[in-house]
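Sequence in, structure out. First:
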Amino acid sequence: MRSALPSLNALRAFEASGRLGSFKEAAAELHVTHGAISQQVRLLEAWLGAPLFERHNRRVVLTPAARAYLAEIGPLFAQLAQATARYGLPEAVSRTLTVNAPATFTLRWLVPRLERFRANHADVEVRIETSNEPVERLKDACDVVIRGGPDTFYGYVMRPFLTEERMPVCSPALLRRLPLRTPDDMRRHTLLHTSSLPRVWPDWLALVNLPALTPAAVLTFDHFYLTLQAAVDGMGIAMGPSALVADDLATGRLVAPFDGPRLPSRSYCTYIADEKAGNDLIVLFRTWLEDEGDAFGSA
C-alpha cells in the first residue's frame, strides 16, 4: 500500500531548493552534493506525479502548484526544528557553533589555527561556512559572522580582532628570474589582480609615486585565493594581505621583495546578533579569535 507521505529527505531537498531557488545552494545548506539534491527532487516529483521546478541555466523556478505546496510545508520544518530543540539533547545543541567567513580568510588564516581551539575545547563542534553574503542575511543561520570592518549593522555587536596591511608578494623563483630591486622594476613583471579589489594596485603604486606604471602584463582573477595561488606558482606579483600570506612568507613559498611601504587595509571583525551576544559558547570563540589576532599582531 502506498505510503501517505513521501521521503523526508526528498521533502527537505525540495523545501531548501524552493526557498533558495537553487539546487547548488540547497546542497551547500544541507551539506550534500548537488547531484543528491537533484535526485531527491526527482524522486519527489515521481511520487507526486507532477513537476516541481522549471530548470534554467543556474537557477530553478517553482511551478505555481509547487509554490503553493512550499508555502504549506515550509513552516512545518521550522516547527519540527523548534520541537527538536525543545525535546532533544540541549547540551549537544548548545555545544555546536556555526561560523561564516570569507573563503580566502578561512583557508589561509582560520583553518590553520582552528586546531588550537579544538585542542582546548574538544566538546565544541565548530561548523565553518564560507561566503560573502551580507551579514544581515545570516542572522538566523550563523552564530558568528566574520567580515571586514569595522562596519555598523543594526542589531549586531561588532568587534575587530585582526588587523593587516597589504604589500607586493611573489614566489622566490620569479624573483630569481626577474629581480626586483626597486618598485620601478615591476614594469618587467605581470601584476596579479582580483576583480573584487580593483583599487589595491593603483593605491599602492600611488604610495610609491608610480601611478602611471605599466607592467609587462596583467592577470585578473575572480577569487582572491586564486590570485594568491597564482603568486605562489610564480605567475606574477600579487598584493598580499599580511595576515593571509604570513604562513607563506614564513615557509618561503612567497617573499616580499620590498621593505615598504605597506597599504593599510580593513580589519577582520566578528559580527554577532544582539540576542546571541551573551551566549557563553559564542563569547568563548570570539575571545579565542581575539587572542589569536593579538598573537599574530605581536609576532
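Second:
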Amino acid sequence: MPRTLEGQITMEKTPSYFVTKEAPKRIYNMSRDTKLIVVVRNPVTRAISDYTQTLSKNPTIPSFQALAFKNISTGLIDTTWSAVRIGIYAKHLDSWLQYFPLSKFLFVSGERLVSDPAGEMGRVQDFLGLKRVVTDKHFYFNETKGFPCLKKPEGSSRPRCLGKSKGRPHPKIDGQVVQRLQEFYRPFNMKFYQMTGQDFGWD
C-alpha cells in the first residue's frame, strides 16, 4: 500500500479479499484501523452473474445446473464451486470478525447501488468521514446497460459507464434450479442479516 499522508484516504479494491482465508489477518497486521467496505448482492443472482462472466470467456463450460449441483436428483448443492461458495457471506464474515469489529465494516447493497446509487454512496461517504460530495446529480440511469452511470454534474465530460463485461444478459436458468439455490442460501442469508444488523431483502 502507498503511504497515506495526513488528510488523505488510500483505497484498494480487490473483491476476492472477502473470501480469501489469509486476508483478514494480513490486513489486520498491516493496519488495524482499516475501514472495510463490502458490496454484496443476492447470492443466487451473484452466482448466475459469476457463471455468465466465465461463460463469456469459455463458451464450452458445462451448464450452470451441472456446476451448481453435486447431484441434481437429490438437489445437493456443490459448495466447492466458487460461484456458489462466494455467496455464503456469513461464513466469510465470520473469519473477518475474528480480527475486526463490526464497526469497521460498511455493507453496501448491490441492489440498492442500482436502485439508489446516490443513497448508497451517501452511506459510503459518511462511513469514510467525508463530506457528501457525490449526490444524485452525478448519476443517470442507462436503459441499455440496465444500471446507473456516472456523469459530471457540470456536464463537462462524457458520462462514464462500467465496461462491456457489466450488464450482460444472463442465460436462462431453470426456475426449479433458482428455487433450490434460494432455499440453500436462505439460512446463510438470515445469519448474515443477524451478523450485520441489516436485512438485504433477498428472501
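Remark: DSSP finds eight helices and six strands in the chain.
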